[in-house]
Amino acid sequence: MKIRSEWDTLKEVMMHRPGIEIEYAMLSPRPFLFERPFRTSLALEEHIGLQETLEKNGVKVRILKDEVVSKANENRSFRKALEDKIVNTVSFYGPVDSSMAAKEQLKKNVSLFDPSTLFYTLTLEPSIDLKKENGNSVEYPTVYSNIPLANLYFMRDQQAVSSGGVIIGNMKRRQRMKEPEITEFIFRKALGQDNLVRISGEGLFEGGDFIPAGMFCLIGVGTRTNMEGAMQAMNSGLMDFDEVCLVENPVYDFMEEDRDPMVNMHLDTFFNIAADGVAVTSIELCQKAKAIIYGKSGNEYVKSMETTLFEYLKGKNFNFVDLSIAEQMSYSSNFLTLKNGTIVAVNAPVVLKKLISIGVFPENLQNAIKQELASVDQKDLFPFSKQVRENGIESIVVNLSELTGGYGGAHCMTAALKR
Question: Partner of 102 for a Cys bridge, out of 59, 92, 339, 368, CB 3.0 to 4.6 A?
Answer without folding.
Answer: 92
